[in-house]
């Protein structure tokens, strides 16, 4: 094969991949806006497709239906953006900073500082999810998947914290994981920030105070 033929094909392949990635980002961005503004039921696939500048069939091919698209929107909210969600978790700057920190107190603080923003971004999607479960049984699985991923991530963090001496004597990895999972949960965020009106910085300070006392020697 002539080398002159290979280069254009590689270039065309890169263009196709870039175009597909851009299309996916536009769809997820449109879906995020629609789910937040209109709820799960009101965010129709037709409306999302029009906003993203694609046909409905493109969304179904890319996301396997509305529940798959909702999951992608939730993952983007957790990551803090669509492009961040496309990176491996350990490659995201805030998570990498947590992983590389060796001081247990600072490591715990860095991790907990990520939680208010995640819960704030997820809040409108959790409201939409309440509607979703009533009209699409697969959407309820989205929440279970998100919580399973969250729990697995917390297990990894607790193991890292223990390795740098960040757990007091007598606290097991499982107890620490479950405590972290509960205290940073969206339900607790909703009660303190949404229902009781706490400012985000007060909520963050509370997380750090409570879990520092619970975990550190």
Walk me through the topology.
Elements (H helix, E strand, L loop, with lengths): L2 H40 L2 H8 L3 H8 L2 H14 L2 H4 L7 H8 L3 H9 L2 H21 L1 H27 L9 H11 L2 H10 L4 H16 L2
Helix pairs in contact: 1-2, 1-4, 1-8, 3-4, 4-8, 4-9, 6-7, 7-12, 8-9, 9-10, 10-12
How would you spell out the order of helices and strands? HHHHHHHHHHHH
Shape: globular
What's the structural domain tally? 2
**Mean pLDDT rating:** 87
CATH architectural label of the largest domain: Orthogonal Bundle
Structural class: mainly alpha
| Unreliable stretches | none
The fraction of residues assigned to DSSP E strands is under 5%
Please identify the top-level CATH class of the largest domain: Mainly Alpha
Q: Report the end-to-end length measured between terminal Cα atoms.
A: 66 Å
Alpha carbon gyration radius: 20 Å
CATH topology of the largest domain: Tetracycline Repressor, domain 2
Largest pleated sheet: none
Estimated helix fraction: over 70%
């Amino acid at each position: 094969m002539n080398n002159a033929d290979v280069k254009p094909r590689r270039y065309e392949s890169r263009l196709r991949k870039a175009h597909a990635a851009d299309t996916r980002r536009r769809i997820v961005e449109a879906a995020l806006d629609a789910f937040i503004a209109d709820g799960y039921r009101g965010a129709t696939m037709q409306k999302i497709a029009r906003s993203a500048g694609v046909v409905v069939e493109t969304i179904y091919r890319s996301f396997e239906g509305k529940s798959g698209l909702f999951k992608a929107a939730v993952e983007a909210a957790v990551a803090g953006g669509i492009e961040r969600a496309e990176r491996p978790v350990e490659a995201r700057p805030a998570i990498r900073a947590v992983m590389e920190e060796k001081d247990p107190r600072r490591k715990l603080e860095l991790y907990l500082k990520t939680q208010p923003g995640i819960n704030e971004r997820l809040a409108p999607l959790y409201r939409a999810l309440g509607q979703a479960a009533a009209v699409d049984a697969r959407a309820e699985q989205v929440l279970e998947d998100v919580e399973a991923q969250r729990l697995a991530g917390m297990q990894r963090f607790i193991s890292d914290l223990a390795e740098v001496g960040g757990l007091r004597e007598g606290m097991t990895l499982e107890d620490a994981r479950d405590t972290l999972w509960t205290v940073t949960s969206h339900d607790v965020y909703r009660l303190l920030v949404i229902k009781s009106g706490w400012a985000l910085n007060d909520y963050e300070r509370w997380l750090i105070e409570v879990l520092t006392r619970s975990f550190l020697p």
